[in-house]
Amino acid sequence: MKGTTSLVGADQYLLKSIAEELRLPLIQISRLAELNLQNKNINQTDIKKMETSADLAIQLLESFILGVEYSDHQTEIELSPITIGAVLNDVAHQVNKLATANNYDIELSVKSAHPVMGNYEAIKMAYLNIAHTIITGSTRHENNRRSSLVFAVYNRGPKNMAGIYSNNLDITKNVWERSINNFEKSRQKMPEFSHINGSGFFVASSILEAMSLELNPSKFHGDKGLAAGFPLSQQLQLV
Amino acid sequence: MKKILLIEPDKTLSKVTSEYLVSKGMDVMIAEGAQEAVNLADQNEPDLVILEIQLKRHNGIDFIHEFRSYPEWHGIPIVIYSMIPKKEFTFDNNAWMELGVSKYLYKPKVKLNELFNELNEVFSEIKI
Hints:
The structure holds two protein chains of two kinds. By secondary structure, chain A is of the alpha+beta class. Helices cover 48% and strands 20% of the residues of chain A.
C-alpha cells in the first residue's frame, strides 16, 4: 500500500504516545477480567467477552506502536529465514477461539514451504491484525451462518503469496483504494465491509510496508482477502 | 507457600496481580516503589521479586543494583514484568543474568496465568 505512513503523518509521535498510555487501562480491564473468570459465580460469558475486547484492543495498539517505530526506523527490523506457512499456522492457532466464537471456520492451505527473509514476530503481528479485523469487523453475518477464514500460502511467480481470505469479506481493489483515500475524509473508512474502521488492516499494512512488503486485495478459490507477496530467495532455497 | 515481593506502581494492577497470585497459593507483598520494596524485603525476605522497571521517582535498574548490594539477597530471583519491552534496553542476555534477572516479561503480552507459569518455572529451576 502506498503512502501508509502518511496516514499518521506529523502527529505520529503524539498518536504513539496516546497509544502507549491507552494500553494501561486496557491491561487493567483484561487482567481484572482474567481474575474474575476464576469466580464461577460471575457470568463467565460476559467477562470473557470483555477480556477478549480488551486483548484485541491491546494487540491493535501494540501493532500500531510497532508500525510507527518501524516506519520511523526507531526499531531495526531483524530479518532471518522463515517459512511463511509456519507464521500463518501460528496465527490461525491463536485466533481459533475467537473465530469459533464468531461463527468462522478456519482453514489452512499451505502450498509452499520455501523459506523467505522476514521478521517472524512482526509478520505474525501483521497477520493477527488482519484476522482479528475480519473476524470482529464484518457486519455480514446472517442468522448464525458460518463463514470461512482461510489462511493460504502459495507460489505466484517469484513470490510466496501469504493471505487471509473469507467468504464473508467483500474487499476489492476499488474498496481498498477508496478506503485509503477516505482515511482523512470519512468517519467510516470501509462501509462496504464493516461498521468499524478496519484500522487493523492499515496497521498490518504499515508493518509489512516497513519490510518492503505490500498488502493488497487478492482472491483465493473465490474468497476475497488481503495478501502480501514475499520474494523467494534462490540462495535460501539452496540452504 | 512462596513469598513474592511485587513492585508495581499502578494500584489497580498490583491489586489484581496480587489477588490472582494469592488465589494460586502464593503469599504476596506489594510495594509501589523502590524504597518501600527494600523496607518490605528487610522485614520479610521474599523468595522472588516481580518488578515493573518503570517506577515512580526511580529507575528499576537502579533498584536492582541497590537490591543486589545486600549480600543476603543475592540469590533471590528477580522477574521483570514491565510495560517497557526488553528491546528498549541495550543489555544482552548476559547482562540481565549478571543482574540476577531470571525472566523479562512484557506486560501487554503476558497474562496473569502466563506470569504464574513463568514464576513456577523460575522456582523449579532454582529448587527452593
